[in-house]
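Structure first, sequence second, as always.
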């Protein structure tokens, strides 16, 4: 959203106009971690909101949208039915432990069904993902600047810590070499042993409790790699293995996917073909937008990212000015 719109939209009454005339369709929102980002030794930038904010958001969503489950969305897609009201899917990505400890009780108290997209390689083991490793190394060694061999620019630590972490993570994402290779280079740079605190993800029993409480699951790949960077075999593994693990460990049917990272460069026709061949019926990206079924592609469903500190006015602006797909 442009700053100008944000500044003048309210004054001119446009915010109110666009919000109240927002079209029918599927509005999906996406969360990652829920809680206080100051509590983690890992990446603070994956926090979407505090528990208090989640309470407030859910109250707001329930007032203005009909919350639907993934199964209900699949049914819309299967029957090619138009959505003649404003409905919303609430989604969480990655599988962090606070989805279970912080989000689930709040979702239950609001009687709301949400779906959790799980990167199965992070579940029930000690794997710390690259973004959490990078953040941990920066917090531990607090460097003044970093430049890895594949980066075009040096990243300088001139503001607060979170800003610097965000900039380093962006450089790792944009760099052509694999994120894990860059982490090895970072470890060497800091002369770090390679050991990290315990990873902060759910295990299989937590996922079972989510299901037992009426929540739904989807796959988010196995290793959380950017799918367009993979070979055909690697891509097949990421799509099939995550689905198979979830289905066999939890006796559930997985037919929904969310793309790791999720911007337009992280999935293509090849990835969508892979999803179809592996029995997925729908997939979410990580870009804002209103899905107007049946015209929107089931493998390119848009989601609004929820960021810390969003007020009701911010949410109204985000939904009111959104593009339609
Ligand atoms: Zn993710």
């Amino acid at each position: 959203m442009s700053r100008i719109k944000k500044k003048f939209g309210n004054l001119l009454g446009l915010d109110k106009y666009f919000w109240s005339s927002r079209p029918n369709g599927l509005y999906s929102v996406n969360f990652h971690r829920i809680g206080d980002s100051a509590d983690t030794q890992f990446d603070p930038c994956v926090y979407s909101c505090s528990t208090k904010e989640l309470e407030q958001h859910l109250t707001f969503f329930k007032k203005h949208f009909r919350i639907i489950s993934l199964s209900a969305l699949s049914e819309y897609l299967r029957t090619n039915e138009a959505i003649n009201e404003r409905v919303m899917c609430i989604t969480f990505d990655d599988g962090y432990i606070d989805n279970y400890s912080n989000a689930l009780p709040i979702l239950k108290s609001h009687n709301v069904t949400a779906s959790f997209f799980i990167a199965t390689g992070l579940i029930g083991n000690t794997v710390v993902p690259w973004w959490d490793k990078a953040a941990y190394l920066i917090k531990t060694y607090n460097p003044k600047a970093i430049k890895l061999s594949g980066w075009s620019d040096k990243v300088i630590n001139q503001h607060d810590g979170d800003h610097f972490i965000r900039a380093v993570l962006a450089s790792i994402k944009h760099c052509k070499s694999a994120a894990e290779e860059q982490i090895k280079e970072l470890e060497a740079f800091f002369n770090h042993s390679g050991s990290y605190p315990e990873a902060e993800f759910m295990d299989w029993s937590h996922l079972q409790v989510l299901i037992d409480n009426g929540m739904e699951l989807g796959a988010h790949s196995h290793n959380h790699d950017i799918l367009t960077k993979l070979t055909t075999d690697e891509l097949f593994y990421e799509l099939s293995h995550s689905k198979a693990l979830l289905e066999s460990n939890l006796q559930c049917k997985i037919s929904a996917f969310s793309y790791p990272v999720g911007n337009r460069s992280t999935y293509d026709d090849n990835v969508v073909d892979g999803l179809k061949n592996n029995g997925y019926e729908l997939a979410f990206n990580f870009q804002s937008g209103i899905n107007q079924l049946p015209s929107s592609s089931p493998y390119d469903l848009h989601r609004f990212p929820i960021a810390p500190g969003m007020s009701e006015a911010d949410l109204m602006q985000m939904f009111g000015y959104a593009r339609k797909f």
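Margin note: The CA atoms of residues 97 and 280 lie 25 Å apart.
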